[in-house]
Amino acid sequence: MKTFFTFVVISLGCLSVARGQGNLQYRDWVYDDFIKTVQLYPNSPQPAAQMASPVISLNSRQQLLLEFDELFNEAYNYRAKIIHCNANWQPSDLSPLQYLQEYNEYEIDEIDYSFGTLTPYVHYKFLLPRPTLPGNYLLVVYAANNEEDIIISRRFMVYEQRVAFTDKYEIIRRAPYSLTKQQLQFDINYQGMELLNPMDYVSVNILQNQRWDNAKLNLKPTAIREAQHILEYNHFTNENAFDAGNEFRYFDIRSLKYFGFHVRTARFQKDKIFAWLETDNPRAGLAYTLEQNNMGQFYIENIERKIPDIENDYARVTFTLAAEQYAEDVFISGRFTDWRKDSSTRMRYNKTTGVYEATYILKQGHYDYQYVLASPKMANTIEGNKRETRNLYEIFVYYRSPKLQADILIGYYKFVYALN
Q1: Residue-wise over 273-295: b if at least 16 C-beta within 10 A, else e?
Q2: Do 202 and 290 belong to one domain?
């Protein structure tokens, strides 16, 4: 049971990290339907920072900021903890004392109430402490009086740049030609450190557009040039090939008075706001068209000089896709859904009108999205796979430290795959 937030000083103790707690999942997840608009990004006042990956350098002063809303009138008392994970996103055996300088229990006490909105909510902020060890981490937010009552889990990464990479132009140039795939061929130079048995102790994870649902995990080198301290990743099958996908669709709901791009109309009804997007159509059979989008991300902002954190309202946004009925379920997909394929993002087919429809509660902002099918192999059936599509790729290099018996993040590289 959650407890209301009070300004009481609570003594802090060292929180032991339990294994396999209740419903904890080691991925980006929201466990409570009243929790909305969860964001974790490098702290900056610029709206564009909200779309940045939750990745920071061990040697910088950058900190990550967590923000989220809860659709209640009253604030609750929440705490957070941080769990070190191996490259496979399972918890390591490290003690919090090995990667944190403080007790692993943090009060989330920066709280504001919504102002002038039809939907009441409480806005929470938490500036994460900086870990002292590079690696994968899971941020867990839970009710203060019950560690098992988890509301949010979020992945983030801290890297120490000990290796060098092939530049992006060479990576793209070396990719085998394909109309539907984007394959990454690259080398890793490890002259800056000694690696013991890199074939077994080094692994690489690759993300496309900050997604973990289609990530390439635990990639091993295809060859090692020991004299030059080079690890080659030149796969010629599909180990590191991604479906190219298509440019993301987007809509702009930063104003509820003046409809932005792709918003057909909006209506205020008592204590609720409803909005409808323009009807979409499948794009798989169409020629590639360059679209100005943010590669699946979203940010919270308005154009009316309000304070977005607490003055942006929530709307029930209806998506409509005009298409023949598919054999598989259709889902709305984007960073704002955490790329989930479940009942919360599934679209319903109306046989009378011949359209798919779904409604999602969203805070005012700018959103990218796509329509996907259930199975990974058929996921892009509606949008298509176009080799020219711009995608953000991130390469993470992990080394199994013999001393720590845990995976540390020794290299990070990101670039946009663009043919023109």
Answers
A1: bebbbeebebbeeeebeeeebbb
A2: no
